Input
Amino acid sequence: MEREGSESEPGNASKTRKPSRNKLACSIACLDGVNFNINIEKNAPGKSLIEKICQHLNVEEKEYFGLLYVDLKTGLKRWLETQKPIKKQLHGECRLRLLLK
Output
């Protein structure tokens, strides 16, 4: 019974520390000021990230929320598009704000 909730298994620590090559570590700022991190595949569409965040926060009405980021090329704020892959929209760091649309 030593293996119950074992944190010493290979791979468990790397999931929380550093994402693999095909994953992106995203920092999410919520409306109440709470920040948390989520790892997601770079090729996943924006909708997958919103769904993962809403699942983490136990939010059922996903359609009322969106993710805002600052485009590092232009300095403009943009909404993360749900149909486009995340890697096509975010260049560099993945810092997003969860907001009401």
About this structure: The chain has three helices and five strands. Confidence is low (pLDDT under 50) at residues 1-16. The beta strands are 23-29, 35-41, 65-70, 77-79, 94-100. The first strand starts at residue 23 and ends at 29.
